TrEMBL record:
It comes from Naasia aerilata. It comes from the Bacteria. This is Aspartate racemase. Belongs to the aspartate/glutamate racemases family. Pfam families: Asp_Glu_race. Coiled coil: none annotated.
Amino acid sequence: MKTIGLIGGMSWESSSEYYRLLNELTRERLGGLSSAECILYSVDFAEIEAMQADGRWEDAGRRLAQVARSLEAAGADLLVLCTNTMHKVASAIEEAVSIPLLHLADTTATAVLRAGLTRVGLLGTAFTMEQAFYRDRLAAHGLEVLIPGPEDRALVHRVIYDELCLGIVRDESRTAYQEVIGGLVDRGAEGVVLGCTEIELLLRQEDVSVPAFATTRLHAEAAVAAAL
């Protein structure tokens, strides 16, 4: 098995999900006591979040590129960036190393197309929903991407940072997210991309009336497949 390098800590709540899924999926594939060959570099999310808030994306790119180089030096054969939002700086990471980065939006788009869908709603941080880096990557695969209106985007973003990143899961927030998704479905969304790794702490497929694409699990599945 190749060694998977995990760029994590954004937040560690979702990074722990990545670690669990990688090991469970490897055991399912190989059986017995098998677990994933992986190296996790978990950054201080307070540092990264401050860069996000200040729009210092180049600084964030340099920081994560440094992490990627450390993982490559430690023996990683491929990289997984354990966050949707920070794929905004994916190119800085790719340019810093000679090993491949498995882009989360690509694995997600592949799953959407495999399901036979072409129009999806997108939930995530305000950065992911409002900026072009993620939506354009999905669109490059032929997908039409719908995002919630301004008030709903603010609600989705707030729940991620003020609750889910802190490990707080509230029924009221689940209901609010379901209403946001309902609005996207009313506008024609055939499915919904849970485009923030923490959202899977709040929503499962049974909570949603249309296909829900859980990006953390999809990313982990792609990483295990690549490593094996």
